[in-house]
Amino acid sequence: MKRRSVEPVYSMCVQPSFIIGTYNEDGTCNFAPITWVSATGVGSDKYMLVISMFGSKRTKQNVIRERKFSANLVNTSMLPLMDYFGTKHKAGDDEAEPEYGVGVGEALDVPTLDDSPWVYECEVAEAVQTGESTTFFCHIRNIQMDENLVCEDTFDVDLTVLDPVIYSGRYHSLGKMLGKIGDFRMKAYEDTSDRKAILSKFHRNVVIMYALLFIGVIVSFIGGLTVLSNPAALIVGLLLVFVSIFFGFASGAIFCPFCGGIISRQGFGEYCRHCGEKIY
Ligand SMILES: Cc1cc2nc3c(=O)[nH]c(=O)nc-3n(C[C@H](O)[C@H](O)[C@H](O)COP(=O)(O)O)c2cc1C
């Protein structure tokens, strides 16, 4: 990859798009797009939502005062709504407000958007000031997710179901779901000459190891039967058995060539029982 150095002013921070729902002082609802949204871990499966706001916008004042808000993920069909909320102050009052449904959180009294496929209900734990920005670290008190989404664990979320708008100065949509962690570890080797070379060396070593073992066992057996007249045969046979074991360790014949897991116990199973790679 050929790169060039540029001024450190450009941002390619890939941001998820959220519309933050808060109450104004008079009890009316306020919604504004905020994309400086991230997360930080606080325990094995627990995490906090981190959201950063610049200046003195109404949403920021509301969050400071109420210490709670909803973060409504924006999907591609909500783009007109996000654009409207993001520019409404500049456009003035004469612009027609688009139609949208408003609900209320299930764990917290925060306004939510009916159209959003994923809503966080958050409570502020801590705020950190950096220049004119305030970053809020927030407890997630409830998540409302699209009923079509099935998650096996905390991080098993198929984003293609949610169809989020990704922002980085411009609006983007997601591409394909490519897989899970680990799916690509050995994919690079698949059907490549590297992979073939690794496997053929491994197979050769396995054959040598078993050949030595086989001959060693036969010679030991014969040596055992003729131990009185020919004790050397038993010694040679046993020696060959030891050599085959030593060779197995030294050449890697008893380890998976991809993950290094010991495979002697699985015999000639087609796939490594540790990493699942096809080895025979
Ligand atoms: C796509 C988009 C992303 C934005 N992200 C942020 C953000 O992360 N932080 C922020 O302070 N303002 C952000 N803004 C600006 C606010 O949404 C904007 O100032 C809004 O008018 C504030 O409304 P309010 O005064 O009702 O809170 C964003 C605007 C748009 C259009």
CATH class of the largest domain: Mainly Beta
Q: Span from first to last CA? A: 36 Å
Radius of gyration from the alpha-carbon trace, in angstroms: 32 Å
Q: What shape does the CA trace take?
A: elongated
Helices and strands, with pairings:
Layout: E1 15-16, E2 18-23, E3 29-34, E4 37-41, E5 47-54, H1 58-66, E6 68-73, H2 79-91, E7 102-104, E8 111-113, E9 118-130, E10 133-145, H3 159-162, E11 165-167, E12 171-173, H4 193-225, H5 231-251
Antiparallel strand pairs: 1-11, 2-3, 2-6, 4-5, 5-10, 6-9, 7-8, 9-10, 11-12
The structure holds flavin mononucleotide (FMN).
Flavin mononucleotide (FMN) binds near residues 32, 33, 34 and 36.
Mind explaining what this structure looks like?
With 280 residues, this protein is α+β, with helices and mostly antiparallel strands. It has two domains: 15-173, Pnp Oxidase, Chain A (Roll), CATH 2.30.110.10; 187-266. The chain is built from five helices and twelve strands. It has helices at residues 58-66, 79-91, 159-162, 193-225, 231-251; strands at 15-16, 18-23, 29-34, 37-41, 47-54, 68-73, 102-104, 111-113, 118-130, 133-145, 165-167, 171-173. The strands form three sheets. The chain has a seven-stranded antiparallel sheet. It has a three-stranded antiparallel sheet with strand order 1-11-12, with no helix packed on it. Helix 4 runs antiparallel to helix 5. The chain is elongated. It starts with 14 loop residues before the first strand and ends in a 29-residue tail after the last helix. Bound molecules: flavin mononucleotide. The site of flavin mononucleotide (FMN) has 15 residues, from strand 3, strand 5, helix 1 and helix 2.
